[in-house]
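Morning. Coffee machine broken again, so started the prediction first thing and wrote up yesterday's gels while waiting. Chain of 112 residues, entered below exactly as on the submission form.
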Amino acid sequence: MGTRIADLQDGYFWVMADIVSVENYKDWYYLAYNNKTCSRKVERDGDCFRCGQCAKTMTFVEYKYKVTVTLKDGTGHATFVLWDRECKEIMGIPASKMRDIMIEVKHTYIHL
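Came back before lunch.
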């Protein structure tokens, strides 16, 4: 993960590393529009939810993962955000199910 500033590039990359810590124990999920074209965070708007990105109002939303982790490889440490798709693959369950489990065992707080 060590690199020179001149070598920095935007893009998607695969990183082979070990997860050494999870940084966000409380805010590891968010509510999002249940749509394949928009999965941005939504805000409560009365009895509905509003997406700030696509400006749509909806009543059905879903929980999605957003987990910040510190990774380590042979060159150093770096902080990454694991989004819903990656977390579902690692955890084997959707964020809504994990949230239900965490509530059941009382290891998290509910902010909605």
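Helices lie at 84-91, 95-105. Going to sketch it on the whiteboard this afternoon.
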